[in-house]
Design brief:
The complex is a heterodimer of chains A (about 350) and B (about 290). Chain A is α+β, with helices and mostly antiparallel strands and about 350 residues long. Chain A has helices spanning about 40-50, 90-100, 105-120, 135-150, 165-180, 195-200, 215-220, 225-230, 355-360; strands at about 5-10, 15-25, 30-35, 55-60, 65, 75-80, 155, 185-190, 200-205, 210-215, 240-245, 250, 255-260, 270-275, 290-305, 305-310, 315-325, 335-340, 345, 350-355. Chain A has two domains: about 5-225, 3-Layer(aba) Sandwich (Rossmann fold), CATH 3.40.50.300; about 240-360, Nucleic acid-binding proteins (OB fold (Dihydrolipoamide Acetyltransferase, E2P), Beta Barrel). Helices cover about 25% and strands about 35% of the residues of chain A. Chain A is elongated, with a radius of gyration of 24 Å. The relative contact order of chain A is 0.12. In chain B, strand 1 (about 40) and strand 2 (about 45-50) form a beta hairpin. The radius of gyration of chain B is 24 Å and the shape is globular. Chain B has about 290 residues and is mostly helical. In chain B, strands 1-2 form a two-stranded antiparallel sheet. The interface of A and B includes residues 71, 98 and 102 of A.
């Protein structure tokens, strides 16, 4: 069972919500839709589900055109950000509801409901009403409802957003494991780059209704096609510094120079935007060609065992992602080390023209 | 530690509420209690009679009949108005100009004063000058609310349904609007039928507004006075004489203030009791779930 979107667009009241998306999802694949709020994730899912019709383009399932087929006649499931269950039915009946509609025999229903409930670890609560459960259990019930029937496509629309951090991690891992054994297409929308990385599989990056890049998650992460993808697919967003490449050196904002190293030698002279990940800038040099940069501290965000250090020099701002707790005073002058061999370079149009060597090998 | 400042300022804040409740409820009620235990001939000649009026009221067969009529009436209109109101609410458009138009149209009967409603239906049902009466005569139905008991009941019930179904409909409409769109979407994906959507999504979400709607309609219909008074005057005979009309006949018609006061108290207690039973039953039903 494969799902293909061909030049799919959706225009609502003159506004383009989805713009010429081409996408092909393979059976048994786990696909993450990554994008900020309003990037079109939910709209795209609604199109995949058949809840809405595309304004242009075709949707194919196994090569068969299903563009106009309503959701009722497609075999799909969906899990939402809100915990959607039938409020007056027990957990058991909630999970059984799709099977009852499919006119399955009682013994078969019972077997499947118990199996799915066990898988999602809600089997002790089968006789309760959804509102008597915690948020995590309510969402597990909703997931069980989606998983119990053999859907060909299962859509998750930011299902873990309303749960607390611990539960989110737990459910995310289970979810990934659940899908390993299945041969259906899973689509999972999220705004968080880290969630996409944790889930693995494939990632499609959406921005303002356009599909920027689609591929195996780690490949998209390490080889972002353009600057927007790079910014969206890292948390905190990748640092971008404008710079100039001449015959033998690289200049950042006319003030910071370093010799063109082997890594960057392939770039022809001209102006570029250089990207460097927040976790790659350090407080101590890691190699000889690290560039020492005097900066001033704006803010040190300390969250548990990590510190996000916001600094600036007269020309640009940087964010550092450091492990451990580092306390700094505002306006303190410090030195940070810029890894010149871990730079991404983007051309004037924002397309990536160079990525760090180590990343390329992966 | 900070020491607590103690003063009596709180009394000033509680006082207005206390005064309003006293004047609006406690004092009038106590006046009625006062009347109910006395035989009053004129402001200066009155005798304490204890529970005599209460005994008389409880044994009065005319009142028993009125009470029975009252229950039949109230339950009939509830049985019609609640399902009908839900249906109307489900059919009302939710978006665009149609929605506002439907809201206004549905709300119109609610804006008409009770006695006007009575007058409208009195004229509407007359065979000589009323549209409805003339129509019935035209198609050969012998319809006369002034002389036929069944017709009188039919008209009184029809009138109430016309007047008050919009209230139930509007309450349900607001309840339905409060259901997030994703529920319907989820149901569509589940391939749920229209009935399943109603039974498992809409009805459970409507329970709370329906409780309020049923309570309001019950209390209101149990106290109905003006419309049947204008339409039939309680007739033919006493076939549409409900409790409040009997009460008025007794208190103002015959000026039997003592028995009328005792009657009002019993009347009040009946309403209170029925509402309490109703409310606790529903609340327990919800808790059991």
């Amino acid at each position: 069972m494969s799902l293909t979107l061909q030049n799919v667009s959706r225009v609502v009241d003159g506004e383009t919500w989805i713009n010429e998306v081409n996408l092909s999802l393979e059976p048994g694949s786990f696909n993450v839709l990554l994008g900020r709020t309003l990037s079109g994730k939910t709209t795209l899912m609604r199109l995949m589900a058949g809840l809405d019709r595309p304004s242009k383009g075709k949707i194919l399932m196994n090569g068969v055109d299903v563009t106009g087929v309503p959701v009722r006649d497609r075999n799909i499931s969906m899990v939402y950000q809100q915990f959607i269950n039938y409020p007056n039915l027990t957990v058991y009946e909630n999970i059984a509801s799709p099977l009852r509609l499919a006119k399955m025999s009682d013994s078969e229903i019972d077997r499947r409901v118990r199996e799915t409930a066990e898988m999602l670890r809600i089997d002790p609560f089968l006789d309760r009403l959804p509102l008597q459960l915690s948020g995590g259990q309510q969402q597990r019930t909703a997931m069980a409802r989606a998983l119990v029937k053999d859907s060909q496509i299962i859509l998750f629309d930011e299902p873990l957003v309303n749960l607390d951090y611990k539960l989110r991690e737990e459910l995310r891992q289970e979810l990934r494991a659940l899908f390993k054994a299945r041969n259906c297409i899973a689509v999972y929308a999220t705004t968080e780059p880290n969630e996409a990385l944790a889930l693995g599989g494939n990632t499609a990056v959406l921005h303002e209704g356009r599909l920027l890049q689609m591929g195996p998650t780690s490949q998209v992460y390490h080889q972002p096609k353009d600057i927007i993808t790079a910014e969206m697919f890292s948390e905190p967003p990748i640092n971008v510094v404008p710079g100039h490449v001449s015959n033998d050196e690289v200049t950042f904002d006319d003030t910071v120079h370093f010799r063109l190293n082997n890594d960057l030698r392939s770039l022809s002279p001209g102006n570029y935007q250089f990207g460097v990940r927040a976790s790659h800038i350090g407080l101590v040099p890691h190699s000889d060609d690290d560039l020492e940069l005097p900066v001033r501290v704006d803010l040190a965000e300390i969250s548990g065992s990590e510190t996000f250090l916001h600094v600036h020099n007269p020309h640009f701002d940087l964010v550092l992602h450091l492990s451990g707790v580092h306390e700094y005073q505002v306006d303190q002058n410090i030195k940070v080390y810029f890894p010149t061999h871990k730079l991404y370079a983007f051309d004037a149009q924002g397309q990536m023209v160079h990525s760090p060597a180590r990343m390329r090998e992966q | 530690m900070q020491t607590k400042v103690e003063n009596n300022k709180a009394w000033f804040l509680v006082m207005p509420v206390f005064l309003i409740v006293a004047f609006s409820a406690i004092i009038p009620l106590m006046t009625v209690v006062n009347y109910s235990v006395q035989d009053i001939f004129d402001p200066y000649t009155r005798y304490f009679v204890g529970t005599e009026w209460f005994k008389q009221v409880m044994l009065d067969s005319r009142l028993h009949e009125a009470l029975l009529r009252q229950f039949i009436y109230s339950f009939t209109i509830l049985a019609i108005e609640v399902p009908l109101g839900i249906c109307v609410a489900l059919m009302m458009p939710t978006k665009g100009r149609g929605a506002s138009l439907a809201l206004i149209l549905v709300a119109i009967p609610l804006l008409i004063p009770w006695n006007v409603v009575g007058t409208i239906w009195q004229i509407f049902g007359r065979a000589d000058i009323g549209l409805f009466g003339a129509f019935m005569a035209e198609i050969g139905v012998d319809y006369n609310y002034a002389s036929n008991t069944t017709d009188a009941w039919l008209t009184v019930i029809l009138m109430d349904v016309w007047h008050w179904t919009p209230l139930v409909a509007l309450l349900c409409y607001s309840g339905l609007r409060a259901i997030p769109e994703v529920y319907y979407q989820a149901a569509r994906i589940d391939q749920a039928s229209r009935w399943a959507v109603f039974r498992h999504i809409q009805l459970p979400k409507l329970t709370n507004v329906l409780i309020i709607g049923v309570l309001l309609r019950f209390m209101d219909s149990f106290m109905i006075y003006t419309e049947p008074f204008v339409l039939t005057g309680g007739g033919p005979g006493s076939s549409t004489t409900f409790l409040s009309q009997s009460l008025v006949q007794q208190a103002i018609g015959q000026f039997d203030i003592g028995p009328a006061a005792a009657f009002s108290l019993v009347y009040f207690l009946i309403i209170l009791l029925v509402c309490w039973v109703f409310y606790t039953t529903i609340m327990n039903m919800q808790k059991d779930k």
